[in-house]
Amino acid sequence: MPFAITYDDAMVGLLTVGGITWGSARWANIGYWVTRSHAGLSITPTAVAMVCDHLLQSVGLHRIEISIRPENQASLRIVEKLGFTKVGLAPRYLHIAGDWRDHLVYQILAEDAPEGLLARL
């Protein structure tokens, strides 16, 4: 489920929902990026909040997961700002730039944000 992140009618990033699982799990994971020129403008936290609200409130998922490289301070600030819970460290989680990279795993549950995440911004 891809979403273009736009600012002033220009595409400045992408947010992708993947691993959508139904049945007893009802969860998905999201990944995102935004151009450096538009970082720090609250565009990404807003996009993450909007998509999470859609997934949890309209689509009916129960859990959204975001995995972040420990050195990615900008993404860590996003999940902290939105109230995601740290689940733990996933060693050698994804193969990036020629090596297996550790990631920190965060989650938000539907009952963690009954008012929605956009309201937190």
Tell me what the structure shows:
This protein is an alpha+beta fold. The protein contains 2 helices and 6 strands. A 6-stranded mixed beta sheet has the order 1-2-3-4-6-5, with helices on one face. Helix 1 packs across helix 2. The model has no long low-confidence stretch (mean pLDDT 96).
- The gross shape turns out to be globular
**C-alpha end-to-end distance:** 23 Å
Tally of DSSP helical segments: 2
- Largest sheet at a glance? 6 strands, mixed
Indicate the structural class: alpha+beta
Low-confidence stretches: none
Q: Into which percent range does the helicity of residues fall?
A: 10-25%
> Overall pLDDT, averaged?
96
Task: For this entry, give a set of tags.
121 residues, six-stranded mixed beta sheet, 6 strands
TL;DR of this structure?
This protein has 121 residues and is α+β, with helices and mostly antiparallel strands. The chain has 2 helices and 6 strands.
Give the secondary structure arrangement, pairings included.
Layout lengths: L1 E6 L2 E12 L5 E8 L8 H17 L3 E6 L4 H10 L2 E12 L2 E11 L12
Parallel strand pairs: 3-4
Antiparallel strand pairs: 1-2, 2-3, 4-6, 5-6
Helix pairs in contact: 1-2
